[in-house]
């Protein structure tokens, strides 16, 4: 049975060129980048080169790039590193953020910070006007994701960045899902911190990046050595850093081609489902969502049974729900969009496209999906 992977928003397969680069580094460059001898300097050159490559993909400066262990750590470093320096104040975020942001904000709320969680409309988009209305003199941080990981909804990051030009609040953007799919220029967006992750762009797991605007104070999460200009202690993962730089370079160079391909795959999936005569709807505005993410509502179809049946047919997809001890907790994103009583919370599935997916695969997956819906609805 052919297995079709349609869960690229969760993680993506490693690009062959990335794997080759990483294997080369693992095999030949084992020095500690902090060592001053030749072996250490060889490792340092790899890191410095990767830093320059990644900085260039977002129009940042070389020293603005901090390597972390994940996108989650990058988000946490920006949020805690900003807030705990201030020790008090007001923070604005949205109800649809990734848990790397939401749980960090909830932790700060317990420490005494004042939090505002902005709502979104039914397409999953926050209003820049709501951000503006929520701003206060004591607002120290605004954290808004670029593209939602569950629905793909693209947020008005540039508009929010523009209105923050006249405010002292620090602007943090979780771009983990958007990086490599949308062009990013940190100068034009007016962001202070921006988080990205290696494994979402056909790079390795266990490596992330935080862009930190030059001159901004940042309290480290980790203490130890003086790596990453004293902002992130710990010996650098040289092979993963090299792999992420390769993945970033490929993703940005092929961005337009890949984006057009994903849009075509998304259209094929939707059109094939429609041809099969089943009842479904899209949980976002297709034209205002990330090209590779498609969140669909199938009335009267139970999420858990749906995912099990898809897996039995060799199709990997996911939902925004958390399955714990046999019970399903509704997606916080869909809850924010449609309310806790909406049927969409219990009958929505995310399909996401990426490396190695073909039009033929997508057609077959859509037909199989329709067959399952007819059985379960």
TrEMBL record:
<dbReference type="GO" id="GO:0051536">
    <property type="term" value="F:iron-sulfur cluster binding"/>
</dbReference>
<dbReference type="Pfam" id="PF00266">
    <property type="entry name" value="Aminotran_5"/>
</dbReference>
<keyword id="KW-0411">Iron-sulfur</keyword>
<keyword id="KW-0408">Iron</keyword>
<dbReference type="InterPro" id="IPR020578">
    <property type="entry name" value="Aminotrans_V_PyrdxlP_BS"/>
</dbReference>
<dbReference type="InterPro" id="IPR015422">
    <property type="entry name" value="PyrdxlP-dep_Trfase_small"/>
</dbReference>
<dbReference type="InterPro" id="IPR015421">
    <property type="entry name" value="PyrdxlP-dep_Trfase_major"/>
</dbReference>
<keyword id="KW-0663">Pyridoxal phosphate</keyword>
<keyword id="KW-0479">Metal-binding</keyword>
<keyword id="KW-0808">Transferase</keyword>
<protein>
    <recommendedName>
        <fullName>cysteine desulfurase</fullName>
        <ecNumber>2.8.1.7</ecNumber>
    </recommendedName>
</protein>
<comment type="similarity">
    <text>Belongs to the class-V pyridoxal-phosphate-dependent aminotransferase family. NifS/IscS subfamily.</text>
</comment>
<feature type="domain" description="Aminotransferase class V">
    <location>
        <begin position="4"/>
        <end position="364"/>
    </location>
</feature>
<dbReference type="InterPro" id="IPR015424">
    <property type="entry name" value="PyrdxlP-dep_Trfase"/>
</dbReference>
<dbReference type="InterPro" id="IPR000192">
    <property type="entry name" value="Aminotrans_V_dom"/>
</dbReference>
<dbReference type="GO" id="GO:0046872">
    <property type="term" value="F:metal ion binding"/>
</dbReference>
<dbReference type="InterPro" id="IPR016454">
    <property type="entry name" value="Cysteine_dSase"/>
</dbReference>
<dbReference type="GO" id="GO:0031071">
    <property type="term" value="F:cysteine desulfurase activity"/>
</dbReference>
């Amino acid at each position: 049975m052919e297995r079709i992977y349609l869960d690229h928003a969760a993680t993506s397969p490693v690009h062959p060129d990335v794997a080759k680069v990483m294997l080369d580094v693992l095999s030949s460059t084992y020095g500690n980048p902090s060592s001053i001898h030749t072996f250490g300097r060889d490792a340092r050159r790899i890191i410095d080169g990767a830093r320059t490559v990644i900085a260039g993909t977002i129009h940042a400066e070389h020293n603005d790039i901090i390597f972390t262990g994940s996108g989650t750590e990058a988000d946490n470093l920006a949020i805690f590193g900003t807030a705990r320096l201030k020790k008090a104040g007001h923070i604005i975020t949205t109800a649809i953020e990734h848990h790397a942001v939401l749980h960090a904000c909830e932790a700060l709320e317990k420490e005494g910070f004042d939090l505002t969680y902005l709502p979104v409309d039914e397409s999953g988009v926050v209003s820049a006007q709501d951000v503006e209305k929520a701003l206060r003199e004591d607002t120290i941080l605004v954290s808004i994701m670029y593209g939602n990981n569950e629905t793909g909804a693209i947020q008005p990051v540039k508009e929010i960045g523009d209105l923050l030009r006249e405010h002292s609040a620090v602007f943090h953007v979780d771009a983990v899902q958007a990086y490599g799919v949308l062009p990013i220029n940190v100068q034009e967006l007016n962001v202070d911190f921006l988080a990205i992750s290696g494994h979402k762009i056909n790079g390795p797991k266990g490596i992330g990046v935080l862009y930190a605007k030059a001159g901004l104070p940042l309290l480290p999460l980790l203490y130890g050595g003086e790596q990453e200009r004293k902002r992130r202690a710990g010996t650098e993962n040289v092979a993963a850093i090299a792999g992420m730089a390769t993945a970033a370079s490929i993703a940005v160079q092929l961005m337009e081609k890949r984006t057009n391909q994903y849009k075509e795959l998304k259209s094929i999936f939707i059109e094939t489902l429609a041809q099969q005569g089943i009842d479904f709807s899209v949980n976002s505005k297709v034209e205002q969502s990330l090209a590779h993410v498609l969140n669909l509502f199938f009335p009267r179809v139970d999420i858990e049974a749906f995912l099990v049946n898809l897996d039995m047919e060799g199709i990997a997809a996911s939902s925004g729900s958390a399955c714990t001890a046999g019970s399903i907790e509704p997606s916080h994103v869909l809850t924010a969009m449609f309310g806790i009583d909406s049927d969409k919370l219990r009958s929505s599935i995310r399909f996401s496209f990426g490396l190695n997916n073909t039009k033929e695969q997508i057609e077959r997956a859509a037909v199989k999906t329709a067959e399952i819906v007819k059985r379960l609805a």
